[in-house]
Amino acid sequence: MTGDLKAATGRIEARMLLAFLAIVVALVGFAALAAEAREGDIFRIDRVLLLAFRDPGRLDTPVGPRWVREAARDITALGGFTVLTLISVSATAMLLVHRRRLQAAVFAGTVIAAEIASSVLKQTVDRARPELVPHLDLVYSASFPSGHAMMSPVVYLTLAAVLAAGERPRGAKVMLLGGAALLVLAVGISRVYLGVHWPTDVLGGWALGSAIALAASIILVRAAPRPLDAAAIAAPD
What we know:
Blueprint: H1 2-38, H2 44-52, E1 54-55, E2 58-62, H3 66-77, H4 81-97, H5 101-125, H6 147-164, H7 170-193, H8 199-223, H9 231-234
Helix pairs in contact: 1-8, 3-7, 4-5, 4-6, 5-6, 5-8, 6-7, 6-8, 7-8
């Protein structure tokens, strides 16, 4: 029994170390991108990828059939302020219904703090939006970091981690976390496809948002008095 306990403790400590290293790497990567963006540098890969999504002869026309453009707008809305706010408010309310007051406070506080950080960073870095191609979505703020790419992991990955902690089958955990990760990737790619962000804006948003999501997930899962399974969302206590 003692051996099993030591093994379990060792696995937890190893996971915590890996999580800490992942957060550090993500933050260092974000800081490096932010420094370059503040200097006004545009990476070659930015231009290459941005143009790769457009018809070479018509820069106002994205590649693919028209339905792809509509799908990109639908996907990008999933990372927008309105949708993420509705999801965050609903998730916070559900945690309160399940008497998870600490988790609700941590999750809501994380989302609010991340949104404020995104706005402050945009104003501080003050990177111009791409002018290489026409924008296919309305934008009002500076370019770095992408708010959609940053806030999507904060909301979707954090919630997925909380739900995955309550699932026993490994397949269910993989589906929850993998689905959230694919959604985050799709939102970020849609911002480049629509021409409203440089790829490094999205990469920076992913890096910082994922670091915040990972840190918040650790706190939320450890703060849970008992695992919260996905089925409980539809059937409150």
